[in-house]
Design brief:
The complex is a heterodimer of chains A (100) and B (221). Chain A has two domains: 1-65; 67-100. Helix content of chain A is 83%, strand content 0%. Chain A is built from three helices and no strands. Chain A has helices spanning 2-34, 42-61, 69-98. The longest helix of chain A is centred in the first third of the chain and has 33 residues, at 2-34. Chain B is mostly helical. Chain B has one domain (16-216): Cytochrome c oxidase, subunit III, four-helix bundle (Four Helix Bundle (Hemerythrin (Met), subunit A)). Chain B is 77% helix and 0% strand. Chain B has seven helices and no strands. The termini of chain B are far apart. Classes of the chains: A mainly alpha (100), B mainly alpha (221). Chains A and B meet through helix 1, helix 2 and helix 3 of A and helix 2, helix 4 and helix 7 of B. Chain B: It is found in: Cell membrane; Membrane. Chain B: It comes from Methylobacterium gnaphalii. Chain B: Pfam families: COX3. Chain B: Keywords: Membrane, Transmembrane, Transmembrane helix.
Amino acid sequence: MSEQRQSPARAIWLRSLVVWAILIALLGLSWLAAYGPFGGWTVAVNFGIAAAQATLVAVLFMRLNEASALVRLAAVCGLFWASILFALTLSDTFSRLANV
Amino acid sequence: MSAVGKLIREPWDELGLSESKAFALQRSGATFGIWVFIASEVLFFGAIFLLYAAMRIEHADAFAAAARETNIVYGTLNTAILLTSGLTASVASRAAEHDGLRRLTLWCLAATAALGLAFLVVKGLEYREDIEKHLVPGPRFALAQAPAQLFFGFYWLSTGVHAIHLSIGIGLVGRLIGKGLRDHEWLVGNAQVEIALLYWGFVDVVWIFLYPALYLAGRAG
């Protein structure tokens, strides 16, 4: 009986701890990269690592991997509209800088 | 009344569904609802990050100089604290679906709320240091470059909005703990646990992007 009750707990911890360890390793990597020799690419490396961490949290901690198609669509919608917001606004910002 | 019967919300009987089927539908509706809310929050924080991107593109040097003034130790510690709270939130969310894991659910909820409070304490210490270093935009601002004030305007706005979100999350998790302690059947299978912890996960994700934006810019060289 007690073994039956413990095994789901162990499975839950094991799965979540692996994800957590990767997240903390990525945090360390991001800190190191900020001081690293990447020049202008540093910002891309740091936000790339942040995007990887956010994906891990959304998919495995927030369980998008088990979610229904409708829920995944709702999640992607936020990113889709935000990408339009970014693309249109930054096209203006970059075009002003290019024409200075 | 069965455990599911206690958690289900009226009116549901007009659809003529069985209790378990009606409850499953309510759960999926609740999950969908919080994700729609999270998508709207993505747009809210997206606009805030867009402001940051546009300002940083135009004032790259001043932003690098200003970001060097933030305390990277506090920032990194708080990121680790929030990532760990994401772990306990995830375990609590999954454990709440098992009949025999009520105690684990409660402990993980308590750890999540405690880590959230620890984050706010560290942030408070950092705010005190920032104020002492005159990093609040205004007449006595510490840095000479004018756009550095834009950076710290963003710093106070974004961390303040995030702290409000986190405080709401701590309140939601605290409520789950209180209800779960009073009623032994309340936590198991309850959609409110998943919803509150999905919100918590989103607040984590916001900080994951604030960390490189506020603490890592301008460190090299």
